[in-house]
Amino acid sequence: MTIKQLSVFIENHPGNLNKVLAVIAENDINIKALTIADTADFGIVRLIVSDPQKALNALRDKHFSVQLQDILSVEMNPEPGSLYHILNLFATENVSLEYVYAFSYGSKSILVLRTDNREKAVDIIRRNNLKSVTEADLK
Questions:
Q1: Torsion angle of alpha carbons 83, 30, 136, 62, nearest 10°?
Q2: How far apart are the first and last CA of the chain?
Q3: Coil, helix or strand for 63?
Q4: H or E element at residue 97
Q5: Which of 76, 79, 82, 126 is the most exposed place for a label (fewest CB within 10 A)?
Q6: Burial of 104 (0-12, 13-18, 19+ CB in 10 A)
Q7: Which residues contact 52 (CB under 8 A, 6 or more apart)?
Q8: Which domains, from first to last, does the chain contain?
Q9: Cα–Cα distance between 56 and 28 in angstroms, integer?
Q10: Which residues, 6+ apart, have CB-to-CB distance to 58 below 8 Å?
């Protein structure tokens, strides 16, 4: 039901994202998804990669502030309204979303989310027969 995600905290300066990407590339790690949340001064780069533990160690060795987290992920149907339908399940049960992003992997569309109530979110996923995505699904 979960996949590993790296969250890297960086200052918002030209070239800093490339420094993160260089470490990933130099360690022969494939990026499957990437999103950035930023403010005027700082950003959080969220990555799903082929070898999360190796990436974590490599980034820490280069003195990046990085965390490895388990996040929820489900497969979306490739049709209009699919994202709305899934997110509405959480809204209807008053589960707040801290962040959401989506990406395609092969022929699949994957929704990644973090909520304020993980247990309730997992229950919603199970009760509504949403297809969970695991690390094995992304190989």
A1: -100
A2: 15
A3: coil
A4: strand 97-105
A5: 79
A6: exposed
A7: 4, 5, 6, 68
A8: 2-69 (3.30.2130.10), 71-134 (3.30.2130.10)
A9: 13
A10: 23, 24, 26, 27, 29
The pLDDT of residue 40 is above 90: no
Q: What is the pLDDT of residues 81-105, one digit of tens each?
A: 999 999 999 999 999 999 999 998 8
Whole-angstrom Cα distance, residue 53 to residue 23? 13
> Which stretches of the chain are DSSP H helices?
16-26, 52-61, 82-92, 118-127
Cα 39 to Cα 12: distance, rounded to the nearest angstrom: 8
Other CB atoms within 10 A of residue 86 CB: 21
Residues 6+ apart with CB under 8 A from 138: 3, 32, 48, 105, 110
